[in-house]
Design a protein that fits this description.
By secondary structure, the protein is α/β, with parallel strands linked by helices. It is built from 16 helices and twelve strands. The chain folds into two domains: 254 residues, no CATH class; 260 residues, Nitrilase/N-carbamoyl-D-aminoacid amidohydrolase.
Length: 530
């Protein structure tokens, strides 16, 4: 092991960059749908050894001395995000005649930018570096900080945060209900990087003890939580989730809109599965209604006739405000609406966190001069909603809706039992076909249920629609390319261990311990040298 580490440390130039790139790309195998988390016990020790050799010139200022460490992190991140996000380009091929030119910008450009976060992580780690276990703590702190920043900087895109690699199955998901994603990201990197100590003489036993203790705690806590008696359900909700698997080339085609709408109606009105009651709630995916209700008020009448007494439909729609499509002041919202058994819209919630370039064009005036336009979401540009609020369901149950990738933001999806008892996520992952994208998206939604301790209802136009319980277990699901409906009786009970505020505090405490440990050992090493 020492010989291998020595060779990695002495790498230089393009060889060092290539190993960092390959280590990052290898790490993607730990994410859904592969879930081979053991690969991280290889990739992160490689990253540690690469950083051991990332020493700047002593004559340079402190900022320049960090450039080799930043470069290693950047190459690691570029490999990770390129291998993990290549499927984004699939959305541009839906209308290839118009958007194929943007394929290299999406597939390569997004990883190029996101890699700067991991470059920042390794630069921060190098500031606190030492030749013992302190450097493992420093790397964990750097990545924890970078992943937290990725949650909100430049509109935020915390996709495939490293912490998800440590949570491939419900048994290993439960710890996040206490640590939050901030703590989980940092702890995951700490554990994955500990085998790097095998090539050193210092703190090997301490590292082995910490590795065993943290893994045992992670697994043991998951086992206890999954086997512990569940809190009795206060109420139940009969639910039907519709997955129509509509071909995106037809979605906004006026000639087939009636057929699409009829398909949705037919799936919604079918006889319930044996042993289940008539659904109280029917859930349709994001933008599943293929026209504006203002243009087709007769469709609301049809929905009212389809819904029985006491039933409610929550549907993803494009909502219009400000007049007709010919009006320049008209605003469009990506929304969910609640429709009662009389065909009336009783509530609506607009998407607050829009996808840049997909649902709106940032810096419209500037980029518009270069002929750029939004790429994939639909025939109009969306405006962002102002706020999110729960929707009242039959039986007095309150559901908090999140549209598409809003569900990947941990700080956005904080469900307080005082405000809601259910997470609803509607999406349209058909843009990405049968690629890793829909699986990664579903995994992140699944983790939100565990974090908040409430059930998750997820409706996708095409994969993956599911009912997930408060401990992350999938009660029922529809696979990618499946057309149909899920019927489920969902127990409604809050099983949160700590509040969202306490999870943030716990995550920050974990980060504080790591930075204090790395700083202390860094100072001790400097004092020994001097």
């Amino acid at each position: 092991m020492q010989r291998l580490a020595g060779r990695i440390i002495l790498l230089w130039g393009w060889r060092r960059a290539l190993v960092a790139f390959l280590a990052g790309a290898l790490t993607v195998l730990a994410q859904a749908p592969y879930d081979f988390f053991a690969v991280c016990f290889v990739s992160f020790p490689l990253l540690v050894w690469l950083l051991d050799g990332a020493i700047g010139e002593a004559s340079d200022g402190w900022l320049r001395r960090l450039r080799p460490a930043f470069a290693i992190g950047w190459w690691f991140g570029f490999g990770y995000f390129l291998a993990g996000l290549w499927w984004v380009g699939s959305a541009l091929l839906v209308e290839a005649d118009s958007f194929a030119w943007a394929l290299p910008f999406a597939v390569v450009g997004i990883p190029l930018v996101l890699a700067f976060f991991y470059g920042f992580a390794t630069a921060v780690a190098r500031l606190l570096w030492s030749n013992d276990i302190g450097r493992i703590a420093a790397l964990a702190f750097g990545f924890g900080l970078a992943e937290w920043l990725r949650d909100f900087l430049f509109t935020g895109f915390p996709w495939n945060a490293i912490g998800y690699a440590a949570m491939p199955v419900p048994l290993l998901m439960q710890s996040v209900s206490v640590t939050g994603m901030v703590g989980m990201n940092a702890l995951a990197v700490f554990v994955f990087a500990l085998p790097a100590l095998l090539a050193a003489r210092r703190h090997v036993r301490l590292g082995a003890a910490l590795l065993a203790a943290l893994v045992a705690t992670h697994v043991g806590f998951g086992y206890l939580r999954l086997t512990a008696p569940e809190k009795p359900a206060e109420r139940t909700l009969d639910v039907r989730i519709v997955q129509p698997a509509v071909d995106l080339s037809e979605k906004w085609d006026a000639s087939v809109r009636d057929r699409i709408f009829a398909t949705m109606m037919g799936l919604s009105a079918k006889t319930p599965e044996p042993g289940l009651g008539r659904p109280q709630l029917i859930l349709w995916p994001e933008t599943s209604v293929p026209f504006l209700f203002t243009e087709r008020p007769d469709s609301l009448t049809a929905l009212g006739e389809m819904l029985g007494d006491g039933q409610m439909l929550i549907a993803g729609v494009v909502r219009e405000e400000g007049g007709s499509a010919a009006n320049a002041d008209t605003r469009y919202y990506n929304s969910v609406v609640a429709i009662d058994d009389s065909g009336e819209i009783t509530d609506a919630v607009d998407k607050v966190h829009l996808v840049p370039f997909g649902e709106y064009l940032p810096f419209t005036d500037l980029l518009g001069r270069f002929g750029l336009e939004q790429l994939v979401a639909g025939p109009m540009t969306f405006a962002a909603g102002n706020e999110r609020h729960p929707i009242a369901l039959p039986g007095g149950i309150r559901a908090l809706p999140f549209i598409c990738y809003e569900v990947i933001f941990p700080d956005l999806v904080t469900v307080d039992v005082a405000s809601a008892e259910l997470i609803v996520n509607v999406t349209n992952d058909a843009w990405f076909g049968d690629t890793p994208g829909p699986y990664q998206h579903f995994r992140q939604a699944q983790i939100r249920a565990v974090e908040n301790g409430v059930p998750l209802l997820r409706a996708a136009n095409n994969g993956i629609s599911a009912v997930v319980d408060p401990r992350g277990r999938i009660l029922d699901a529809l696979a990618i390319d499946a057309r149909g409906a899920i019927d489920a009786l969902v127990p409604i009970s809050n099983q949160a261990i700590v509040s969202s505020g306490q999870r943030r505090v716990n995550g920050l405490l974990i980060m504080l311990v790591l930075v204090l440990a790395s700083f202390t050992l860094n100072v001790r090493q400097r004092l020994r040298v001097n």
